[in-house]
Amino acid sequence: MIVAVCVAQVTAHVFDEANPETIASTNLTINVRRNENAPRFERGEYRVEVLEIAPIGTELVQLEASDRDGDTLQYYVTADTDERFRDFFYLNPFTGAVTLARPLSLSEAPELSVSSVLHCCSKPVPDKRNV
To answer: What is the pTM of this model?
Structure first.
């Protein structure tokens, strides 16, 4: 459901430089569409186990989210995420795939637990009818 919120109503004027007294006017209303359908992950939690010897680039999990409006989704990791996540893993912002970014070492990350840090946000697909 998209709700339109009126942002501005103005009157625009135009005149002819050759005859400045000749003026035409029109009303302009600008509405911003607010998207009230937030994207949702298909699952509430993802758990993954990976071997320490897994090669770089191994896909560990495919996050899946959807949006009732059909908007394009983008995945991201929050700023307060344990920095070790960013060191060892890569989250593809467009596909939601989480891959191994560097070799794992149990001595460096004996137990890496990442929770509540993966989010998706919707980016509206441009409406070409209004361009």
So the answer is: 0.62
44: exposed, middle or buried (Cβ count in 10 Å: 0-12, 13-18, 19+): exposed
Residue whose entry in the numeric block shows the structure tokens 């758990």: 47
122 close to 73: Cβ distance less than 8 angstroms: yes
Spans of all domains in the chain: 2-34, 37-130
Does domain 37-130 match CATH 2.60.40.60?
Answer: yes
User: What is the Cα–Cα distance from 71 to 96, expressed in whole angstroms?
Assistant: 15
- Digit-coded pLDDT (tens) for 40-78: 888 888 888 888 889 999 999 998 888 887 778 888 887
- Among 89, 101, 103, 113, smallest CA distance to 52 is for 103
Q: Using CB atoms within 10 A of its CB, is residue 22 exposed (0-12), middle (13-18) or buried (19+)?
A: exposed
Is the distance from CB of 75 to CB of 107 less than 8 angstroms?
A: no
